Amino acid sequence: MNKKMILNIFTIAIFFVLLSTTMVFAQGRLDIVFSGSTIGGVTNLQMNGLAAVGKQFCNLEPTVIVSPTLAQVDIMKDGDSDICTTYGYEAYFAYYGQDRWEGDPYTGIRSLMPRPNATVQFAVPAKSDIYSVYDFEGKRICVGRAGFGGELQSRSILDALGINYTPVNLGHDDSLAAIVAGNAEVYSNSGAFPHPSFLEMAETIQGGIRIIGFTEEEMEKILEKAPFFKPATMGPVYKGMPEGDIMVPQVESLIACREEVPEEVIYCLTKSFWENREFASMQWAGYDELVFEDVAGIKGSAPWHIGAYKYYVEQGLQIPENMIPPEAK
User: Fold this and answer.
1) pLDDT (tens digit, 9 = 90+) per residue, 279-295?
2) Pairing mode of beta strands 109-125, 186-191
3) Could you tell me the CATH superfamily of domain 3-115+253-328?
4) Yes or no: is domain 118-251 CATH 3.40.50.970?
5) pTM to 2 decimals?
6) Cβ neighbours for 231, distance < 8 A, ≥ 6 positions apart
């Protein structure tokens, strides 16, 4: 065998080794794990929609896993997922080392895109003499089970206003029973409105219910201490509510990701979602509610991932300073 043939064989061998290495690397980057809640639940459907976008337009090989709602950020922090659904305050607290992340911040969390926000609603019987949030002083308030999102949201709002109250940690059925029996005065929950739990409450309690509205001054105090809320307008959607709109707090809801996910992957996912939203909506119709321009108003979460940030800036959005990723500064 002459030297030229040996050289050719060696070159071909090197080529296939490099090709094999490249393919393994590429395949590793294409495997992305999306984390949602129970199969058939809202956040699971949201993740399926986004995963479908990634597979169709970004050459990703997605896997959607089931995770407890309030454990999704921790699961991502442990490296068991790359993208998850969360609330703005969860990402905010994790990034800045507050609340349950105090002393152990997760600075590798990044925001990717918004989800439709959840509205925090404080309900009382229509015949109640409670008309203002400050009338909650000293009252017993059903805030949901201990450690769940509803409890934290209610606590953040009431603490920002300096209101002292007695938290009652019960699920929906028990909360409704407590209100009917007079063992609690207020029931708090969050989600889209009309919310099923409040529709049931309005039909169960004679005369229906009222949702307590907030003033602009109260909302300003809340936003000063808890920037992951924003004001929203709500009409009389439950039996017993008087005519006219009221102001209520909404909590920012987002999809978050790991900083380590490559910039080009998140850029492609962000761009493809917004430019092909009807494709994602085939999995979850709620994506149709999102307004692209609202991205610029999000400020109560972890900074944007550099890939998402670059797309938003390219589209002319003015991103708040605290949402600019450190990698872009």
Assistant:
1) 999 988 889 989 999 99
2) antiparallel
3) Periplasmic binding protein-like II (3.40.190.10)
4) no
5) 0.75
6) 214, 216, 219, 223, 247, 248, 249, 250
